[in-house]
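re: that chain from earlier
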Amino acid sequence: MTNITNFLNEHAAYIWDTTDLHHKESTAKLKVFLDFGDNADKRLDEISGADILDFCRWLKETRGISDNTINHYRSALSKFFNYAKDYLDLPKIPNI
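^ sequence. v structure.
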């Protein structure tokens, strides 16, 4: 199975193909997720709903990010995993 970091690097331009700003912001959000815990070293099929929830809790409690901004992170993660599911024909993706 594909490593999440490699998949992001190879496919980010196709996942967020709207504007350069949206691509840049969404990719940055995913990179924050990858920097959290050991997410960068995991395979796509190893990311769980708990990983997403722990990340969102960390954003709020440690970084003081608002609920609205956390929803932007969740949206970027959702777009990423839905693309990966379609591209790789994954049987399951984390609940975001």
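Helices lie at 4-15, 20-35, 49-61, 67-88.
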